[in-house]
Amino acid sequence: MTDTLADSRTSSRIFTEGVPVTVEPVTRRPAADREAVLADPGFGRSFTDSMFVARYEAGRGWHDARLTPYGPLQVDPATAALHYAQSIFEGLKAYAQPDGSVATFRPEANAARFARSARRLAMPPVPEEAFLAAVDALVDADRDWVPTGPDQTLYLRPYQLASEPFLGVRPATEYLFLVIASPAGAYFPRGVHPVSVYLSEDYIRAAPGGTGDVKCAGNYAASLLAQEQAIAAGCDQVVWLDAVEKRYVEEMGGMNLFFVLGSGDDAELVTPELTGTLLPGITRDSLVTVARDRGMRVTERKFSVDEWRAGVADGTVTETFACGTAAVITPVGEVKARTGDFTVGDGTPGPVTMGLREHLLDIQHGRVPDTHGWLHRVA
Ligand code: PLP
Ligand code: COI
Fold first, then answer.
1. Could you tell me the CATH number of the domain that includes residue 326?
2. Can you tell me which atom of ligand 2 is nearest the CA of 255?
3. What is residue 379's predicted lDDT score, i.e. its pLDDT?
4. Ligand 2 atom with minimal separation from the 283 CA
5. Is any atom of ligand 1 closer than 6 Å to the C-beta of 281?
6. What would the mean pLDDT of 159-180 be, rounded to a whole number?
7. How far apart are CA 70 and CA 179, in angstroms?
8. Residues contacting residue 203 through CB under 8 Å, at least 6 positions apart
């Protein structure tokens, strides 16, 4: 069945001051097609019926905000973002709640990080309330696409790019802000299974003064060769070391890392401190809080490869896991490095990793009280 609205209309939603959200007619995918996608969504390969688009022009500000049918963009071949990567993005999820409503998780934190990323790339920031309004408008319009299967979500991808057709190297005067949505199952198709990692000694992700602490597109382009090297070495993921001494562990691929020291009631968490070269993950920040709620000691400090290796050998380091919005929490098992391989744990996910994972998922899916006010009801 298709449900086509006759005309564009101005909704009661406001993107930012003086800019209402126009809703264009959208042809909805038949329910049977949608259900087929939702039965096994994978990650990042299917998209919903609508998308959100707003434009910026120097001197005019943000304007022309609309919900429009999901579809190709027409871009000039000289579009600045295609040449110089003046482009940023965010990732967050909408979760079906047990009462039938839909909620996003800490979207204010994504809005704030998006604005920080924009400033670092010399872009006009999307006002934080406008970011939230855009995400809410899209989730509300496409709420039928929020999957309800175990641990399924609607992954949301806000992004901003320099759309001015101009080849000079300077901040563009025109930008697009978009939000697209993609139903998501597990990010790692093998499920909760320890990943093997390769310590990158040839490449770095981020250097002091660079862009490692923001989500700009170029960071991900520059990471791909190291990820390929990890795969060639028989590993699932790359682990990044600090650029200066190549001694300290920073991140795993696009995820933050945690180390569990000790076990049982004495277990302690260590996560690399935010030195300016790590992305301040919202999952990382949430887990620091959740772990403290559970009575665990959590320390943010530098953590070296030597400490990791020695800790695994003498039993001090009992578990290691990575965390991020897309994959939530993933245990780390085998570690390969030119300086010698080692394995954390016994090849199965550890109890602290799994306890924190369940706790966070329970909050996000509304199965336990949201004591920190992290859920934002959308629809
Ligand atoms: N580190 C990097 C480099 C990332 O791209 C991401 C993903 O956004 C994360 C960490 C985890 O951040 P978050 O928990 O906010 O998704
Ligand atoms: C994450 O959510 O953990 C990410 O790194 C997003 C990724 C798909 C870029």
1. 3.20.10.10
2. 3
3. 80
4. 3
5. yes
6. 98
7. 10
8. 222, 223, 225, 226, 229
Quick one: pLDDT at residue 2? 41
Handedness of CA 106, 183, 175, 9 (dihedral sign): negative
Q: Tell whether 225 and 350 lie within a shared domain.
A: yes
Verify that 223 and 354 share a domain, yes or no.
yes
* 39-73: pLDDT as tens digits: 999 999 999 999 999 999 999 999 999 999 999 99
| Pair 173, 251 in one domain | no
Q: What does the pLDDT average to over 330-348?
A: 94
Does the beta carbon of 330 sit less than 6 angstroms from any atom of ligand 1?
A: no
- Ligand 2 atom 6, closest CA: 326
- Residues 162 and 118 placed together within one structural domain of the fold: yes
pLDDT at site 188: 67
* Same domain, residue pair 120 and 156: yes
Confidence check: pLDDT of 263 > 90:
yes
Ligand 1 centre distance from Cα of residue 9 (Å): 36
Prediction pTM value:
0.96
Domain presence at residue 370: no
Q: Name residues contacting ligand 2 (CB within 6 A).
A: 91, 254-255, 324-327
Token couple for 379: 């629809």
Q: Residue holding tokens 């579009």?
A: 79
pLDDT band at 1 (very low <50, low <70, confident <90, very high): very low
* Contact (Cβ atoms closer than 8 angstroms) between residue 353 and residue 331: yes
5 Cα: distance to centroid of ligand 1 (angstroms): 37
Asked if 80 and 178 sit in the same domain, the reply is yes
Structural domain harbouring 165 = 3-184
Instruction: State residue 113's pLDDT score.
Output: 98
Compute, in angstroms, the gap from residue 18 CA to the centroid of ligand 1. Answer: 33
Give the model confidence (pLDDT) of 7-21 as tens digits. Answer: 788 888 999 999 999
- Other Cβ atoms less than 10 A from the Cβ of 35: the count is 12
Residues 216 and 295 in one domain: yes
Among 165, 184, 203, where does a domain finish?
A: 184
Phi, psi values for residue 249, rounded to 5°:
-80, 135
